[in-house]
Amino acid sequence: MRNPLSHLPNPACGGADHVLHRRKFLQGVAGAGAMSLMSWGGLFSLPAFAEQAKRTQKRCILLWLCGAPSQFETWDPKPGRPTGGPFRSIPTKLPGVHFGELMPRCASIADKLAVVRSMKTAQSEHLQGIDLLNRGAAPRPPFIRPTLGSVLAQQLGQLDNPIPNFVLLEPCPEGNEFKEFKAGNWAGWLGAQYGPVRVGGEYKIENVARQADVSAEDHEARNALRQFLTKKYENERRSAAASSQNAVFDRVKGLMSCADLFDLEKLPAKDRERYGPAAFGLHALQARHLVENGAPFVMVANGMPWDSHVFHNEIYQMLVPELDRVIFNLITDLEARGMLDSTLVIAMGEFGRTPWINQARGRDHYPNAWSLMLAGCGIKRGVIVGATDADGVDVAEKAFNEKNLFATIFTALGIDPYAPYDIPDLPTFHRVEEKAEPIREVLA
Prior knowledge:
The chain is α/β, with parallel strands linked by helices. The chain is globular. The strands form 4 sheets. It has an 8-stranded mixed beta sheet with strand order 6-5-7-1-8-11-4-12, sandwiched between helices. Strands 2-3 form a two-stranded antiparallel ribbon. A two-stranded antiparallel ribbon has the order 9-10. The N and C termini lie far apart (47 Å). Strand 2 and strand 3 (98-100) form a beta hairpin. Helix 6 (216-237) packs antiparallel against helix 7, helix 8 (269-275) packs across helix 9 and helix 9 packs parallel to helix 10 (312-336). It folds into 2 domains: 51-204 and 267-442, Alkaline Phosphatase, subunit A; 208-262. Helix content is 32%, strand content 13%. It is built from 11 helices and 14 strands. The chain has helices spanning 22-31, 47-56, 104-108, 126-135, 148-156, 216-237, 240-258, 269-275, 279-292, 312-336, 402-412; strands at residues 59-64, 89-91, 98-100, 114-119, 167-170, 197-200, 297-301, 343-348, 352-353, 365-366, 370-376, 383-385, 387-388, 395-397.
């Protein structure tokens, strides 16, 4: 049977209470003589303050569906259409709104989610799409724009918090789909201190314990000497690299004190059963545990399984139910812990999949019309924004791009999306360029 679409081209929490800046907070407590509490393990070691800080701190979990998930089997089904595939749609908690039949759990909590069905971006290849959707703007060589995680690490990171401000959980932390994001390129001009700590594999951090033959006193003395020499070099040479190196060593010191938070064996077996057994689910559970204990940004990546150029329907019968289970458990757990209103959850990939099925029974790359999901901090509940045409070939209502998305994320988290970066001797860059509007329909 001839593909009826073969003639088509195949293209390759924002409120006033959110804007208190850390510097102004420091100025306030300094006037009250409270600076001594801000030393390592000081103010945040007080149980009452630490618990309140964890509850009110803004944070973000990005479920990165690398390889690009299909909108047709998830958020924007087209049952009965030539593009719809063999799967049906099912009603959700929202009257008149349907999801793909492989997502019954998400359908049951649709009143807690916001879905954008009208993303339209420009890149149709993985590396370029990953770069675009992680940085929020097209490349402008030789300047390297920081990724979303690095910006949020800088803006949401807590003072004296030993937990890394940017954690990347992935099956192969030595590098797979992100191999082009070389060391330092994640944070761009912000500096290496805002790059990710990459963790995966055995669901714990290895080799962070102090060696038995080095006493605590010797360890601190060595660290103090290193800091002195690096600071001297930084001052004499005006070296930003030396400053970044000091920040990285401080992060390692923090990791040594919080390594237990990365050990999934310390979480209840029933929780691991609900999220597992695959790496993506267990890493989502790990992300929940980390933000619960103060991590401001955690990115959960799951390799490249969504890149379904062959046997699409068979692959999605396994992948989509797992995604459905993970999102359902993560959203319901965050709400049960009183954290959903302060935690932004995003589920997306670098683009969508083609309306047509190729000769290998797969769907190919498609940035022209695709979907993503938002929930939690600063996001309205139970909102479906935008629409595609009857066959999902193009956006029919309210097209949005990566700049609109980044403006939405920053606004939801109480961050000024249009503020310029403080980067001396470089051209002016903004968190979101061209004053692109946020997707206001999803903002609370």
